[in-house]
Specification:
The protein is α/β, with parallel strands linked by helices. Helix content is 30%, strand content 21%.
């Protein structure tokens, strides 16, 4: 992994952009800056000592993408590994290759936690305060601030508050804080949860030495299996250049993802029948409607991807099982359900979800006034009402995160070039008091972590541009073709600062 120097930032120096986060979002923004704004300066700040963000933080068994890498990969960097559903180490390797290819290591200042960011309207620049592990602080100045810090709390996971937890004599682990070299060989494991993390953990642990793994779920989740290797991409790569094969596979997968999502919304009963038939085919006599039929429509929550049917194979081989029920309490030897049943356990994994946060818990202010993002509106998927020279990424819930990263980065670099033409030092999505648009539910998804955290998120309008949209193909067209100077974005010229 690339390390970075922590050189003090001279007070007089001002970068063109400060990027917060050295994961997929931050690295994507950095590459677009390098390619599309080659004369501009930037730095990447991250609290961790290694790049990778999510893919460096999570170390639990089987950690992998829940999207195919032809869409989770970037538009500018083909994914060349054989498997399109990739494990965490392969994704880190991919990010390392990009970092080396574009010389990003020298731009990274790792081990620096961003604690605050204040916009000074008189000088049209951000003052970003960072903190090292020893408590020392530094200030970095930049014209534009890009938040690529993700959407969940790195310090805390969601605590479901299970009664009797302290009485359990075994080990309780949350996937976000997986211990190094934890040995679960021969042990009875209960994974609480039914989302992507649980569906990943169960087969990984079952096939790597656990005595038995039980997935304990309150409600089932819709699952779909697909091959870990993309057969069409494999064929295309035999006859076409790598970049072209990647682009065609990417376009194919974007189309199929969009088709599946819209069909689930428009014809939920047909999609339910399709998914249920696939589940029955994979599980045979082990299929139970009570355990595999959710009480909601497909894509009301994110669809769980099961590569190569590994989850179903673990069940069919007797190495894993699914139990549906509500937890009454933990006891010394396992979990007591409200039904009175008991599940024995040596290890309990609480895959109960993440704790959402916005802007990486950074204290953001404009001219000394704190910014409450829950009172701001999204603008064109990435900026925020009445906050100058600032953008961030919140990826798609119904598609790959990186699809949003690419189009946001393209838009921001286009914005920076337009500002240069105007001689502008600030661009602000202006919304006058009392002119707020009609609101829309920001996330039409019933997932627990979304519902718990959406009150901390910026607001969403019913129509563009004041919206975080969930339609990639429409967003791509809008963000590439809509004029930068759209009558909403307000520009401040350098001479206006002098005049003020």
């Amino acid at each position: 992994m690339n390390m970075a120097t922590n050189m003090p930032e001279p007070a007089g120096d001002c970068l063109d952009m400060i990027i917060v986060g050295a994961g997929i979002s931050g690295i994507g923004m950095a590459v677009h800056m390098t390619r599309e704004c080659p004369g501009k300066s930037f730095a990447i700040l991250d609290r961790r000592e290694r790049l990778g963000g999510t893919w460096d933080l999570f170390r639990y068994p089987g950690i992998r993408s829940d999207s195919d890498m032809h869409t989770l990969g970037f538009s500018f960097k083909p994914w060349t590994h054989e498997k399109s559903i990739a494990d965490g180490p392969s994704i880190l390797e991919y990010l390392d290759e990009i970092t080396a290819e574009y010389g990003l290591a020298e731009k990274m200042r790792l081990g620096r936690k961003v604690v605050s960011a204040d916009w000074d309207g008189k000088t049209a620049r951000w003052c970003v305060t960072t903190e090292a592990a020893d408590g020392s602080r530094q200030q970095v100045y930049g014209r534009f601030l890009f938040l690529g810090s993700g959407y969940y709390d790195y310090d805390e996971a969601y605590d479901a508050g299970f009664a009797g937890r302290d009485t359990f004599r075994g080990t309780v682990i949350h996937p976000q804080f997986w211990p190094n070299d934890f040995d679960y060989s021969g042990k009875k494991v209960v994974v609480i949860g039914s989302g992507a993390t649980a569906v990943t953990l169960v087969p990984a642990m079952a096939h790597s030495g656990a005595g038995h793994v039980t997935m304990l779920q309150r409600t089932p989740t819709w699952m779909v299996s697909r091959p870990a290797r993309d057969g069409i991409n494999k064929t295309l790569r035999r006859f076409l250049p790598e970049k072209l094969a990647y682009s065609l596979t990417r376009a194919k997968n974007i189309f199929l993802q969009d088709l599946m999502f819209k069909r689930a919304r428009n014809q939920p009963e047909k999609v339910k029948d399709f998914l249920s038939a696939q589940l029955r085919e994979h599980l045979g006599d082990n299929y139970s409607a009570a355990d595999f039929t959710p009480p909601y429509d497909p894509w009301d929550q994110r669809l769980c991807l099961v590569p190569d049917a590994d989850f179903f194979r673990a069940i069919n081989e007797g190495k894993a099982s699914v139990v549906t029920g509500r937890i009454e309490r933990f006891d010394e030897t396992g979990i007591v359900l409200e039904s009175g049943d008991h599940i024995d356990a040596d290890v309990i994994v609480t895959a109960t979800g993440l704790k959402m946060t916005f802007a990486g818990k950074i204290a953001v202010s404009v001219d000394g006034e704190p910014v409450e993002f829950s009172k701001r509106f999204f603008y064109r998927n990435c900026m925020f009402s009445n906050v100058p020279n600032m953008a961030g990424v919140f990826g798609y819930l119904n598609a790959s995160w990186t699809l949003r990263v690419d189009i946001v980065a393209e838009y921001i670099t286009r914005l920076l070039r337009q500002m240069d033409k105007y001689g502008a030092v600030a661009a602000t999505p202006a919304m006058a008091p009392g002119s707020e648009p009609e609101e829309d539910d920001i996330f039409d998804f019933s997932a627990g972590y979304i519902q718990r955290g959406k009150d901390t998120m910026p607001r969403n309008a019913a129509s563009l541009p004041w919206r975080l949209n969930q339609d990639y193909r429409r967003d791509r067209q809008d963000m590439r073709q809509a004029p930068i100077d759209d009558g909403v974005l307000q520009f401040t010229r350098a001479r206006e600062l002098v005049d003020a």
